[in-house]
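Protein Record: Sequence and Backbone Structure Tokens
======================================================

Structure line: whole-number tokens from a learned vocabulary of local backbone shapes, matched to residues.

Purpose: to set a sequence beside its fold so the mapping can be learned.

___
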Amino acid sequence: MEGQAATALAKMVTPAPVALTDPSGALDKDAVTIGRVLEAIFVMAGDRMVDQSDATTIQVAETCATGSHTTIPGGVATATQSVADQNTRALRDEDKVKL
């Protein structure tokens, strides 16, 4: 670029602040929350043992609620998976955890 004037390739711009005037969809009164999903699971399941399908359902619900692609350590999905694993190893029904 010898002999040529340098030209600006980019311009730094600071956007104007955005005011939050409307709550996000997660705050709508009809929003599906992890609590509502868990309540529906427990109502539908009745009084039966926690199994792998319950753990998977809760993991999907938690993933959708958090927007993360991993389970939260110590979260509801992790705890449910642990219980489902425990129930798989339990020899007697009375040793299994129910919903």
In short: The longest helix spans residues 52-66. The mean pLDDT is 76. The two ends are 72 Å apart (CA to CA).
